[in-house]
């Protein structure tokens, strides 16, 4: 895989000082997954280009990873890693140009601190989301972007374009910033990393994103993709970015993690459509008291609190950290005494009876049941419908049939999902629960309707039958 960086700053050969790599030398650097070669195909006072070539050794790459690595399968040996820019190239570049990325150049510090004319080319780059995503990521950083889709086969135009692009960037940017942006955005465009990600990934992202990521309009998208859709790491990173931008509540929006592998769209996000649908049902039911079971960081609770007709509101979650985020989002510490009496947050697991769950007109389980191991579902049903017995229960969950419409989705929509029901499976489960615990049930769809596959989210509205045991 190949990356070139060109400058027309004069004398252009100063690029060698900034990169700490002499233009007259060909240098090799060993990596755990292959060999990096750095050389200068052109070097004059008017124009200087450095080329970085990464020769990947697939066997060495496979052997350098443990069984818990993301691709422990034949995919370790049969893949595009030897040919297409990816996290491998990002890691290699970050290592070979580490001093340049820091912005330090003792002999040319004024130049290292200055924006200079740069051209960056990557001939083959995986780009999930197509050329548009490359424009969205690089243009806000001041780059003129050329992202040309590469056909699947030049001889067969009808086959269309592949998921790869030829990327060419032109701009006046500080070299250190350009290298750090590439370090983050190469794996973001590929949306795949070759190594196991740990907590230190957040620190790496913060370092490489310093000075530009917090204010980037696609900061959330970049963070989620860079961290491999790991909800826990993403929330930590977004919280840290929010502190830099003084926008904590808006940045922490983990409900969007449920849409992790869905395409970026301009219409109303599915998560917002879910909130609208559930909120409307609660109003239709005339509920006065509502408990959000599995409230997460309180996104939906915020909407409930802003609705005056709900006189009593509670949120519960198994995660104490999520409840801390919810308290921050809802400004619990600044609530009036009257408002504080209206709202309650508490930690609890839905598979264990808890008297605090009882006494509500309606309970909401929004994108919760699919996170429960199937053998534990019966316990959840007994707690929610048998012991707690609210007047109504609203359950939403993904429609597994719809997943085929999401480009690039392999498996389920979220790594923590234990299952994703088809419409028939959801109907069978909801009918069984309603029959067992004396509820009537109505099912609705949420999101764009496909005539064959239904909607992306399915919702069941359970209402207790009159005369059932209190």
If you had to describe this structure to a student in words, what would you say it looks like?
The chain has helices at 14-19, 58-63, 87-96, 98-102, 109-112, 131-138, 175-190, 200-208, 219-226, 231-245, 248-251, 270-285, 299-305, 320-330, 337-342, 374-388, 423-436; strands at 2-7, 27-31, 34-43, 48-56, 115-126, 144-151, 161-174, 289-293, 312-317, 343-347, 362-366, 392-398, 439-446, 457-464. By secondary structure, it is α/β, with parallel strands linked by helices. The chain has a seven-stranded antiparallel sheet with strand order 2-3-4-1-5-7-6. A seven-stranded mixed sheet has the order 10-9-8-11-12-14-13, with helices on both faces. It is elongated and about 90 Å long. Mean pLDDT is 84; it is low at 64-75 and 245-266. It catalyses: small RNA 3'-end nucleotide + S-adenosyl-L-methionine = small RNA 3'-end 2'-O-methylnucleotide + S-adenosyl-L-homocysteine + H(+). Belongs to the methyltransferase superfamily. HEN1 family. Its EC number is 2.1.1.386. Keywords: Magnesium, Metal-binding, Methyltransferase, RNA-binding, RNA-mediated gene silencing, S-adenosyl-L-methionine, Transferase.
